[in-house]
Write a structure and sequence with these properties.
It contains 18 helices and 24 strands. The chain has 609 residues and is α/β, with parallel strands linked by helices. It has an eight-stranded mixed beta sheet with strand order 2-1-3-4-5-6-7-8, sandwiched between helices. It is elongated, with a radius of gyration of 41 Å. The chain starts with 12 loop residues before the first helix and ends in a 10-residue tail after the last helix. Bound molecules: 2-acetamido-2-deoxy-beta-D-glucopyranose (2 copies).
Length: 609
């Protein structure tokens, strides 16, 4: 295929033209693929591949293109009888493969230069598959011919501008073989997405603060951190935004057959050119769509029921730890045994005496032997210390408020089997592939409820609610969390996971690279952070924001308060339980005695002599 310069004079003129185009416009191409039914001659200074289409059907052609496309070849030169089949295969490969390029170029050559052939070639521009390719160049025999020369028109589609003119033909230039010059010297690949001339770019989204807020009171009726990204994009490249609302299905989901619902569905079905609204870089979705550079880094965590003040019967038990209580009970048992031994194995009131001494009561009978006194004496000393220690502990329990344990980590959530939830399962898309048992458990505790149900539950302490921590220090909190409910909730200490938000588009969308460029610039200037703060100040409930932000420090504030009934209610519980048991025993005793009396009514009482 490589030819010496001297032979060029004998080349057909189309090959000379192609050579010029390659030299001028494809010099930076990574590699070029020729799809052709017969040989073409030209010189290429870099790598290329060749696909012969003789007798291949659509699937076979698609597989061949897939092969080269995965190796990084994104520019094609096509000379086939039925170019529409190539376009279909090309579109199919776009979804089969993983390679993606925003700036793919296709050059189509006439097959046999007949009128019929020209019509077939020009019809390519009307195909749906062509509408998503910015740079497609058709070389067709010229309408006005110069006698004695072969001349060609160079045609592309308009691509930019109003919807009804995007697929119209655009005559770029004319070349003829006598002069070997272009008539105008135009750029043959003019669509570099730098000026879309008001072309409509459809954006799939739904209201989710602070990313996207629709129906606001402003000239455009929309705002939000990600809305500002696409609006800035359109200001840059001169396009017009058309919102595709997905309020119903929100993030939605995607099916194997390349259909779907929600924002994801609108992008895969080409109902929207770009998809926004807190779309994370989900792996499963990446297989089907293009992702821009990451715009916002978010951390996902929950607001869980805040720990309440401990008000319970446990309060009298709190001054001592469990080990301490066990020690105290053992002391009681051992002292009682010692006293029984000291009293020559008589259990006469031994337990009662020891119990009394341990609660700082005096002995009823001080006239024991030295053996008894040595047991009770040491016990007096020990119980003095125990009682003072308990008293001190009780004082601090009463004055410093005690809280239940808080929900801080993922482990806490799974340990308590606490439900967490939101209105959509997009929150767990990032976790579902994890093989970690802890994460699996976490995923199984996720529940979807309607916004009303979530609002109701935010008052019942029955579940945690997922929220996002944004980079400028604000939170994305569902509207169902009201400022009345927030005081009962507390933000968790640990984040569940981090995610990168992206703008999604169809695979190899011409916009992806440009949107990524823009996002890079936005990061550079710090605009993303500024926007987040501006949007938060304007549209978020600041009371909710501040309360969530400070929820941990507010809860921890120690309040000293006078003693109230709340503090001693535990003691009364114990007292009531004690009384109840005593009464019960008393009644049981009475009944048992009457029964015995009734059984032996006439038995004489034998008094000891
Ligand atoms: C942007 O597009 C409009 C058409 O909608 C056009 O009139 C205008 O000249 C374009 N602006 C620039 C700077 O090219
Ligand atoms: C695609 O699959 C989904 C679910 O699997 C189904 O509901 C839908 O009808 C399918 N669409 C088409 C066009 O086959």
């Amino acid at each position: 295929m490589l030819l010496a310069g001297t032979m060029q004079a004998t080349l057909p003129s189309i090959e000379i033209l192609l050579q010029i185009i390659i030299n001028n416009f494809l010099a930076n191409s990574y590699c070029i693929t020729f799809v052709s039914e017969e040989d073409i001659n030209f010189q290429i200074p870099f790598s290329f591949t060749y696909i012969a289409t003789n007798g291949t059907d659509l699937d076979e052609l698609a597989n061949k293109i897939l092969d080269v496309s995965e190796k990084g070849c994104s520019d094609y030169i096509v000379r086939v009888k039925e170019p529409s089949i190539f376009m279909e295969a090309f579109e199919k490969v776009n979804y089969m493969g993983n390679a993606r390029r925003s700036n793919r170029k296709i050059i189509m050559l006439p097959f046999n230069e007949s009128d019929e052939d020209t019509k077939v070639l020009l019809d390519i521009l009307l195909m749906k598959e062509t509408s998503s390719i910015a740079n497609i160049l058709l070389i067709v025999p010229a309408i006005t011919k110069t006698p004695g020369c072969t001349s060609y028109d160079l045609v592309t589609h308009k691509f930019v501008g109003r919807d009804d003119e995007v697929s119209m033909r655009e005559y770029l230039d004319k070349w003829d073989s006598c002069t070997k010059e272009f008539e105008r010297g135009a750029n043959l690949f003019p669509n570099d997405i730098s000026n879309l001339q008001g072309k409509i770019v459809k954006v799939g989204c739904f209201t989710y603060k602070p990313y996207v807020i629709l129906d606001v009171d402003s000239p455009t009726g929309r705002d939000g951190t990600e809305v500002r990204i696409v609006e800035e994009f359109c200001r840059w490249v001169n396009c017009t935004i058309e919102i595709v609302r997905e309020d119903e299905d929100q993030w939605g989901e995607m099916y194997e057959n390349r259909t779907g619902i929600g924002v994801l569905g609108s992008v895969i079905e080409d109902r929207a050119d770009l998809g926004i609204t807190a779309l994370y870089s989900w792996y499963e979705i990446y297989l089907y769509l293009d992702f821009s550079a990451a715009s916002i880094r978010t951390a996902i965590t929950c607001i869980a029921p805040a720990p309440r003040l401990l008000v319970s019967w446990e309060m009298p038990l709190l001054p001592f730890s469990w080990n301490m209580w066990i020690g105290t009970v053992l002391t009681f048992i051992i002292s009682s045994l010692a006293l029984i031994l000291a009293m020559d194995c008589s259990s006469n009131k031994a337990f009662l005496t020891i119990f009394g001494m341990m609660t700082a009561q005096s002995q009823d009978d001080a006239s024991g032997s030295w053996k008894i006194r040595s047991v009770t004496g040491w016990l007096l000393v020990a119980s003095l210390i125990l009682c003072s220690a308990y008293g001190a502990g009780l004082a601090s329990t009463f004055t410093v408020p005690k809280f239940e344990n808080s929900v801080d980590t993922v482990q806490d959530i799974t340990d308590r089997k606490l439900q967490w939830g939101a209105t959509h399962d997009a929150w767990i898309y990032s976790l579902t592939l994890s093989p970690e048992p802890l994460i699996k458990q976490l995923v199984s505790q996720f529940k979807i409820y309607s916004a009303e149900e979530l609002k109701r539950r935010s008052f019942t302490r029955s579940m945690a609610f997922s929220i996002e921590k944004l980079p400028a220090g604000n939170f994305a909190i569902g509207g169902y969390i009201t400022k009345e409910a927030v005081p009962n909730l507390m933000i968790m200490r640990e984040n569940f996971y981090y995610e990168q938000n992206v703008v999604m588009a169809r695979k190899s969308s011409p916009y992806t690279a440009k949107v990524s460029d823009l996002i890079g610039r936005l990061h550079e200037t710090g605009l993303m952070l500024a926007w987040e703060t501006q949007v938060a100040l304007k549209y978020l409930d600041y009371k909710v924001q501040i309360e969530v932000k400070l929820s941990r420090s507010l809860q921890k504030a120690v309040k000293i308060e006078p003693l109230s009934f709340r503090h001693i209610v535990g003691i009364f519980y114990i007292y009531i339980v004690g009384i109840a048991i005593s009464l019960l025993l008393f009644v049981v005793e009475l009944c048992a005695k009457r029964e015995r009396n009734e059984l032996k009514p006439s038995s004489p009482i034998h008094l000891p002599m």
